[in-house]
Amino acid sequence: MTAPGTPKGLTSHRLTTLDSGVRVVTEAMPSVRSVALGFWIATGSVAESDAEAGLSHLVEHMLFRGTARYGSLEIDQLFDALGGELNAGTGKETTTVHARVLDERLPEAFDAMADMVWRPRMDVDDLDAERRIVLEELAMYEDDPQDKVFDVLGEAVFGAHPLGRAIIGSPEVIGGVAAGDLAAFHAGHYRPGNVVIAAAGSVDHDALVELARAADPAIGSVNGGALGVAGAVGAPGEHIARVRFVHKATEQVHVCLGGPGIDRHDERRFALRVLDTIVGGTSSSRLFQQVREERGLAYAVHSFHATFADTGEIGLYLGTRPDNVAAALQVVGDELARLLHEGVEAAELARAREHVKGRVVLGLESTMARMSRLGVSLLGEVPLLEVDELLERVEAVEADEVDALARTLLDPTRLSAAGIGDDEAAFRAALAPVSPALAQAA
After folding, report:
1. What is the CATH number of the domain that holds 29?
2. Does 336 lie in the same domain as 293?
3. What is the DSSP string of 227-246?
4. Which of 158, 160, 223, 318 is most buried when burial is the number of CB atoms within 10 A of its CB?
5. Could you confirm whether 401 is annotated as catalytic?
6. Catalytic residue among 60, 93, 155, 335
7. Quick one: 173 and 39 in the same domain?
8. How does 96-111 read in b/e, with b if 16+ C-beta sit within 10 Å?
């Protein structure tokens, strides 16, 4: 069935819900000749138990191993012949298979992608080969402390909650899962109600709906089920500030500080983007200027934020030599204290708002970005605002909103810390200027 009327905030988009529960959403961009197409599935690392850690990511890999109709090499050759780009990704709450192709080749791309998503082969020999690849990916990841430290922070911030686990999973689970169990995991999570098919670019909505509807009998035979909401596993319990440190011989100490943020439905999410920009999101931000430009204490330093179904995360990262850790964290502590006590300045607020607005507009000139916005918003049940409305919401952010959010989210007593390096005692001692209690935290 087609959703009656045009939902609020969807004036440039069209949405159809099939009888199976699959939602098809499109945004036409007449000025381009390509289409970005994505299958968005409401499953990720938060949908896993500890015994399933990493299965969403492993399933994503197995989608490329072939189906009953397409072999792995055939899939690669097909998209090479289309001149297209095919890829996939697994997150905390979602998995996506996405491609960009010429508009005239969309039916061929859709046919292959639908087969991959709904009918992956899950052959035992293919699984054995792919698990070796994922184990190599895990080993590569362990050798990259600049990436790993963010998962160490996730464990510190969220503890035993699924958000605290690494998306990539554990070697024990990846190495031990049987093909039948992985196929059952796929069937249980890749339900029609958990899937959004999104496309942006030179796309005809009705034609795409017919492509999806033609696959509907196969979709219906996979598994039914109620409409899925990405990441709907419940909020973490009471937050406890923790310190997590991984001993590793590195040239730099990799440091993350962070804490719980706000969920993706929170109306303060626009103020959060502005706050993040001011703290460490740009080259003119406070942390970049004070830690890197003024004192030369780090090459990489930035802040970040993420929003999930029931909570969020906010934090900062820096990498510095061991003899600079104390000085760098002293600057971080001073800057956070200055922000919380003095608030944001009018000029930096105006600059941050304009930066966020510019990033929104420039990003949405990409078909892939527009397609992603459709998939993420529908799967997460977040209103799809028009570009002008987005810009208005950012422009409306005032200093008192940013100041209040900073005092809530960046209160030193609620920050956790993660580090990777060679000297845990020195790392813990260096945390004192940020939060004396943190230096003593478990």
Report:
1. 3.30.830.10
2. yes
3. PP-TT-S----S----EEEE
4. 318
5. no
6. 60
7. yes
8. bbbbbbbeebbebbbb
Exposure string of 343-359, with b = 16+ CB inside 10 Å and e = fewer, is bbeeebbebbbebbbee
Tens digit of pLDDT at every position of the chain (442 positions) = 334 333 333 458 999 999 999 999 999 999 999 999 999 999 999 999 999 999 999 999 999 999 989 999 999 999 999 999 999 999 999 999 999 999 999 999 999 999 999 999 999 999 999 999 999 999 999 999 999 999 999 999 999 999 999 999 999 999 999 999 999 999 999 999 999 999 999 999 999 999 999 987 545 444 555 555 555 567 777 788 999 999 999 999 999 999 999 999 999 999 999 999 999 999 999 999 999 999 999 999 999 999 999 999 999 999 999 999 999 999 999 999 999 999 999 999 999 999 999 999 999 989 999 999 999 999 999 999 989 999 999 999 999 999 999 999 999 999 999 999 999 999 999 999 999 888 777 7
- Whether residues 192 and 102 share a domain: the answer is yes
Instruction: Look at residue 423 and tell me if it is in a domain.
Output: yes
Tokens 């069937």, located at residue: 187
Q: Quick one: 204 and 265 in the same domain?
A: no
